[in-house]
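Notes from the 1:1 (GR / supervisor)

We went over the backlog. Supervisor wanted to see one worked example end to end before approving the batch request, so GR pasted a single chain during the call. The sequence is below; no edits were made to it. Supervisor asked that the structure be written out right there so they could see what the output format looks like.
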Amino acid sequence: MKLQVKVCGMKDDQNISELIKLPIDYIGFIFYDQSPRSVLKIPTVQIPGSIKKVGVFVNDTVNNIRKKLDEGLHVIQLHGAETPEFCKEIQDLGVPVIKAFGIHEEFNWATLENYVSHVDYFLFDTRSKQHGGTGQTFNWEVLKGYKLHIPYFLSGGLSKQNIKAASLIGDKRLIGLDLNSKFELKPGLKNINELQNALNLL
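Structure output shown during the call:
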C-alpha cells in the first residue's frame, strides 16, 4: 500500500497554493503559539477535498479545539501530554485523532496501551522539548518495540536523503510520513521543488 504523505507546519498562502498541487494527503496547521510555524486560523486558500486539514495542538482545551474544528479541520493531532481521557473527548467530537509521542531509545511502549480505544492513529516523532519540528531522526530500530495494532505516521527529520529508507521500513501499520522542517526555506515556508523531488522517490 502506498504511504500517505502529510506536510505539516504550513503558514503562507502562496506556499500552500503551490503545495496542494503535489500528491499529498494531509496538510498540517499548528495551533501552538510556542512554535515558529504557528497560525491563529486556517489560511483562506481553497484546499482540494482530497487533502485533509490537520490541526496540531499542544496541551490545549477541548473548547479551543472545538472552535478550530468549526473552522474546517478534518483531523486533530495532539502533540503534548494529553491523557487518554482527553483524546476520547476529542474523538467524541466526531473527528479522527492522531496522538503524537516523542520516541527515544528508552521509550516505554506500554505507555500507549491506554490510548488504544481513544485514538485513530499514533505519530512517532523524535523526542524534544519543543514538541516536534527539530529536524532530527530517531533510531527507527526502536519501532520494533511497538506491538499494538493502531496505525501510525512516522515523523522526525524526514528528508530527501532518508525518505526512501523510511518507505521501506516494511511495517503494515506504518501508513504515512510526516514531512516538515527538512523541507523548509525557513520555519513555515516549504521548498516545493525539494518536496516534489522527495515524493518522486516514493
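Supervisor's comment: The chain has a mean pLDDT of 95.
Batch request approved.
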